[in-house]
Amino acid sequence: MSNTQANTPVVKSENEFGKTGKFVLDNQKSLIFIAGAIIALILLYFAYQKFYLAPRELEATEQMHVAQDFWAKKDWDKAIKGDAGYPGFEKIINDYSNTKAANLAYFYLGTAYLNKGDFQKAVDNFTNFRGDDAVVASEALGSTGDAYVELKNYDKAETYFKKAVDKASNDFLSPLYLKKLGLVYDAEKNYKSAVETFQKIKTDYPTSSEAQTIDEYIARDQARQ
């Protein structure tokens, strides 16, 4: 191989670097402007978090504790609407949107409406809730399933009970939602799926309270097939 051929890639590389350097020089002002804009956005984000969102979060949490007390006492109307001195969960959501407190208020509000028998509002609030905690998130999903059962929307109920089982992934809540799923299959006269679901409780969660009486459900639905 000749020296000229061996050096060809090096010349090409140098040309490429030369073009890159020329691009930077030709567009220096634009690049500085873009870098400055990115830094400004980062600073704005941190300022928003510290000086706007954090104080609102604290205020929302302080405002919400009375509604939580009403909720714990099952005074659903006051939990939803509040009283003369403190807001209910609806106002927390409206006044403090984008806060963790407002997100949690959706769960409380969904539970209140479920207990009041306003099942569509329960669904609307539960499905707005975004939870990282597996227990609370699975309860929200399972309660959404309960609301859909009351609305006779069994397809949706199936979907949410399955999600609740997967999200919970524990020996206490998973068999509970499996049993509810099996009962939905019963309501749809899908006895084969009901038996399979009840059998899963017996196999996967044998020490659960649901497993202690599940044989009678299995025998009943086997007879119905």
Protein topology:
Blueprint (H helix, E strand, L loop, with lengths): L2 H24 L1 H45 L3 H6 L7 H7 L4 H17 L2 H8 L7 H17 L3 H15 L4 H15 L3 H14 L9 H11 L1
Helix pairs in contact: 2-5, 4-5, 5-6, 5-7, 6-7, 7-8, 7-9, 8-9, 9-10, 10-11
List keywords for this structure.
225 residues, mainly alpha, Serine Threonine Protein Phosphatase 5, Tetratricopeptide repeat, 11 helices, extended, disordered N terminus
Structure description:
With 225 residues, the protein is mainly alpha-helical. It folds into 2 domains: 1-102, no CATH class; 131-225, Serine Threonine Protein Phosphatase 5, Tetratricopeptide repeat (Alpha Horseshoe). 80% of the residues lie in helices and 0% in strands. Residues 1-14 and 43-49 have low confidence and may be disordered.
Note the beta-strand portion: under 5%
H/E series:
HHHHHHHHHHH
Mean pLDDT: 85
Structural class: mainly alpha
List the total number of helices. Answer: 11
Number of strands: 0
Number of separate structural domains? 2
Largest sheet: none
What is the overall silhouette? extended
Binned, the helix content reads: over 70%
- Rg value: 29 Å
- Cα(first) to Cα(last) distance is 82 Å
Unreliably modeled segments: 1-14, 43-49
